[in-house]
Design brief:
Layout (H helix, E strand, L loop, with lengths): L6 E6 L4 H13 L3 E7 L19 E5 L5 H11 L3 E4 L6 H6 L1 H22 L8 E7 L23 H20 L3 E6 L1 E3 L8 H11 L3 E4 L5 E6 H14 L4 E5 L4 E3 H15 L11 E4 L14 H7 L7 H14 L1 H7 L3 H10 L2
The structure holds nicotinamide-adenine-dinucleotide and 2'deoxy-thymidine-5'-diphospho-alpha-D-glucose.
Length: about 350
């Protein structure tokens, strides 16, 4: 994509975990871009994630729901967005098992609402326009012991979450083919880092270790994920946004596979050191519980394309990233406390009662 000096960029879901890191990077790095963070502030959205940039002149927050088509159309008309980086989503697999329809609404219908608004606004001039859809490696389903997901791996989603993301990817591609809407899609592996809501494995376990609460391992814990530090994902999005080719998909991953149990043991070891606890005291909190239905065995990304074409690679090792993450949670006790009060407790009791 050609670089224009000024642009109005819509980032959806910018108050969430990954979105807040993308918003921060763009606001700080590109003072000539106007960055509009559109977020419904669901349980996962938190403006506390962005206090350091909220006063910047090129940052604007819009509280809105992507399910509200007429509001979305009005906002596109009002702010004349040149580009969209779409991260807003329901993102947690366990919640999708309990309430699939919420995922169909936001992840599929919300995405189509945005596509329609972009198609309408850009109908007479597609130059320099871009709809960048942020997706997941879970659309590819599960791997066996070997092999990697590439950009040509067939879609085979297994959870309501991944089925909703896969459908949204198909719609983005379909708008590219049918209406010539310029787009990119990137499919990324598991992110971790500061500001992640403590429902996902790493922040949940950090929180529970601090509290000396059981660490609920699904099944036998022999499931594998490919972990990427969130700021490396944001850097990849920045690169793809500026240098990617129209109608392309990029896989993004950490070249960093860990079986859950090994990861949890490493986390326990690091946390024991940081908290000045006796060696191995946190591993005693490991508790095996009922498996997640449809639990994908293994994810692993082949990120060769984005590496070769755009020169992207992760900047931190897993141990460095984990240490930074743990330090952030220990230094931001108030953040952790505020997001784990009230409704969180209800969710937690319900999810882990079985
Ligand atoms: P998150 O749950 O932390 O944040 C989602 C954000 O979207 C929140 O701020 C929430 O308020 C907002 N949102 C939800 N529904 C909305 C709606 N109807 N209208 C407007 N805003 C709404 O999610 P995340 O982990 O930061 O993931 C961001 C994106 O990246 C998602 O599309 C997800 O599928 C994708 N992704 C996540 C990971 C991961 O490991 N977390 C990996 C690959 C891809
Ligand atoms: O791969 C990318 C995806 O990674 C993203 O698209 C999703 O938005 C994100 O939530 C993540 O999905 P996972 O299901 O892989 O992440 P989660 O942190 O929920 O779980 C990671 C692994 O840990 C998985 O094998 C399930 C296991 N787990 C998870 C939780 C929450 C447990 O054993 N116990 C738990 O309590």
């Amino acid at each position: 994509m050609k670089e224009k000096t000024t642009k109005n960029i819509l980032i959806t879901g910018g108050a969430g975990f990954i979105g807040s890191h993308v918003v921060r990077l763009f606001v700080n790095k590109y003072p000539n871009y106007q960055i509009f963070n559109l977020d419904a502030l669901t349980y996962a959205g938190n403006l506390e994630n962005l206090t350091d940039i909220e006063e910047k002149p090129n940052y604007h927050f819009i509280k809105a729901d992507i399910n509200n088509a007429s509001e979305i159309n009005n906002l596109f008309e009002k702010y004349n967005f040149d580009n969209v980086i779409h991260l807003a989503a329901e993102s947690h697999v366990d919640r999708s098992i309990t309430d699939p329809l919420a995922f169909v609404k936001t992840n599929l219908i919300g995405t189509v609402n945005l596509l329609n608004a972009a198609k309408e606004l850009w109908r007479d001039n597609l130059e320099d326009k871009l709809f960048y859809h942020i997706s997941t490696d879970e659309v590819y389903g599960t791997l066996g012991e070997t092999g990697l997901f590439t950009e040509t791996t067939a879609y085979a989603p297994n959870s309501p979450y991944s089925a909703s993301k896969a459908s949204s990817d198909h719609f983005v591609r379909a708008y590219g083919e049918t209406y010539d809407l310029p787009y990119f899609i990137s499919n990324c592996s598991n992110n971790y880092g500061p500001n992640q809501f403590p429902e996902k494995l790493i922040p949940l376990f950090i929180h529970n270790i601090i509290q000396n609460k059981p660490l609920p391992v699904y099944g036998d814990g022999k499931y594998t994920r490919d972990w990427l530090y969130v700021i490396d994902h944001a850097t990849a999005i920045d690169l793809a946004f500026h240098k990617g080719k129209n109608k392309q998909t990029y896989n993004i991953g950490g070249f960093n596979e860990w079986q859950n149990l090994d990861l949890i043991k490493l986390l326990c070891e690091l946390m024991d050191k940081k908290l000045g606890r006796e060696k191995s005291s946190s591993t005693k909190l490991i508790t095996y519980i009922k498996d997640r239905p449809g639990h994908d065995k293994r994810y692993a990304i082949d990120a060769t394309k984005i590496h070769k074409e755009l020169g992207w690679k992760p900047s931190v090792t897993f141990e460095e990233g984990l240490e930074k993450t743990i330090d952030w949670y220990l230094e931001n006790e108030l953040w952790l406390k505020s997001v784990t009060s009230g409704k969180y407790q209800e969710y937690y009791d319900d999810q882990y009662k079985k």
